[in-house]
């Protein structure tokens, strides 16, 4: 698919208009826009002068940044001691998006480490000896699926995980993140994604969960963390993906969700904001951008399918421009926005969003797609699964393995 670049002169006209009402938020917005405009102007001049395939994804340096992270982390990551499976996931998913293999030795070492994070009573903790928690459980299971060896698959204790999840389920269908822990929509998505991927899903385990999810959709159209909260990009992805995993997506208000989602893409920057009146952030390239393959699927199943364009319902080129021009660290890795530091979280989700922007599929067959790649053709990434956010081949192979295993029964079968 041809890619039409936006012009700097046109972008400059899209500056935020304060209308003589200046706030801290409006000043931060203007500063962010000016930073992006400077980078867009330089990129446009370089492209015109060199007549080269720009921009270019700094693949080699990013791969080196990621591979170093698998072996050693700086002291700055000490604050993420309770998120170690997340560090594994962010790194291995970034590597698979970049089509970079992991050695058999490293795969086995990662599986061994994640095994030490698995609690004897079920679920994975943020580190060895810590409390099992749904967030690192999602990260650990996704990591094991990406690694994709029989050793990795067999590491998951499905029986105990199902029983542990059953203890986290609330009567109204919500899930706490850990026993006696906090409760929000992330827990429901992490539980459903894990349950579907390793085939422990049952209607009994997720009794009433669809109704709780629907209560999280706000008047804005997006989903909040719990009923009554403000709509938010990450929560909206979790809410819609969770409903899709339950085959209940038609119950939510598609029109308001779509309207809210398309209005989160920034007109000048090209990236997405997480909430109304917030700044652009590279990570929302996936949390917001990842909504659109799910929304596209929903619209194709309505009477409006013939009105759909042969692309996602957001500006795929603008998002790629923001990520490749404004979000690359010169040392490798990707960032939130100009002026921010690189980290593995933003590297993972900016690359995930870039993959969404490059790959379009108008059918349920994720291998039947059209491509839209800005700049160097070598910028092309491996497509990511729109619900699990692991690459499509890993998701397919993991599903084929686990779907051949029986679904464990849980105590909540009383609801059957």
The gross shape turns out to be globular
Percent of sequence in beta strands: under 5%
* Radius of gyration, CA atoms, in whole angstroms: 21 Å
Mean pLDDT: 94
Question: Which strand order do you get reading across the main beta sheet?
Answer: 1-2
**Separation, N- and C-terminal Cα atoms:** 49 Å
The biggest beta sheet is recorded as: 2 strands, antiparallel
What's the tally of helices? 17
Query: Helical proportion?
Result: 40-55%
Q: List the helices and strands in order.
A: HHHHHHHHHHHHHHHHEEH
Total beta-strand segments = 2
Unreliable stretches covering 5 or more consecutive residues: none
Helical/strand content category? mainly alpha
Q: SSE layout and pairings?
A:
Elements: H1 8-12, H2 24-50, H3 59-71, H4 84-97, H5 104-117, H6 134-147, H7 150-155, H8 158-168, H9 185-197, H10 209-215, H11 233-245, H12 254-262, H13 284-287, H14 291-300, H15 316-326, H16 344-358, E1 359-360, E2 370-371, H17 392-402
